[in-house]
Write a structure and sequence with these properties.
This protein is 73% helix and 3% strand. By secondary structure, the chain is mainly α. It has one domain. Strands 1-2 form a two-stranded antiparallel ribbon. The two termini are 21 Å apart.
């Protein structure tokens, strides 16, 4: 059992390190090149071949993850998490939400988004339209991914399993429709994945280790892990 946990930890560390390094390299390439090879062709193909119902669902989940809707959605999710899994699970979700705020401050690379002409304009960047990385992807992986993790860790019912896989579905839908809906170039989506993966793994790492630190203070531990939360 301990060997399995150790192996999982080593794999997690490796994924986080590789993703962080790739994120740095990829971000530098985007900042230098502007548009990468294959992005225009991939955007055109996904735009022309994606079923309309996928883009429709993508538009539905797009609104609550915008700059105005995201905080409201997050508050609603936090209330549900607190009701379902307790105080510490909510703290974990809040920490994941804090990590998403880093991409809300500004784009790492200010580049214009795609258009129906599939032409990249170097000087037409407008904040909120395009930009690297995709903040929607970072939000989806951090928040929906954290909900999936909490569902797996704390829920023992079939509902928890449904919630977990539904969150995975929302992440995949976001990954696809950010490109097919011409909201972002593929590189913006890839960058969002690369940047959010180590951040997500850091949140999980802390979530599993903080209890060991705060149990030294009985009052704090009792406050965080009120009866029925664990």
């Amino acid at each position: 059992m301990k060997a399995d946990i150790s192996l999982k930890s080593q794999i997690g560390y490796l994924i986080a390190a590789v993703s962080a390094i790739c994120a740095l390299i990829f971000s530098f390439a985007v900042s230098v090149k502007g548009i990468l090879w294959g992005e225009i062709g991939m955007s055109r193909w996904m735009y022309e071949n994606t079923p309309e119902f996928l883009d429709f669902f993508g538009d539905i989940i797009d609104a609550p993850i915008t700059d105005l809707g995201a905080p409201l959605l997050f508050i609603g999710i936090s209330i549900l998490v607190y009701w379902q899994w307790g105080r510490y699970a909510t703290i974990g979700l809040v920490f994941a939400g804090f990590m998403t705020s880093l991409t809300r401050i500004s784009d790492v690379v200010e580049r214009s988004g795609p258009n129906e002409n599939f032409v990249f304009y170097e000087s037409s960047f407008i904040y909120g339209e395009g930009g690297y990385p995709s903040g929607h992807i970072v939000y989806a992986i951090m928040i929906f991914g954290m909900i999936a993790y909490l569902a797996e860790k704390h829920s023992k019912t079939q509902v928890g399993t449904i919630v977990k896989y539904f969150m995975f579905l929302l992440i995949l839908l976001n990954l696809w429709t950010r490109i097919s809906g011409l909201h972002h170039w593929p590189g913006d989506v890839i960058g969002g994945v690369l940047l959010s993966t180590p951040a997500f793994l850091i949140v999980i790492w802390l979530y599993n280790r903080v209890p060991g630190f705060i149990e030294r203070n009985p009052k704090i531990y009792k406050f965080v892990f009120e009866e029925g939360n664990n």
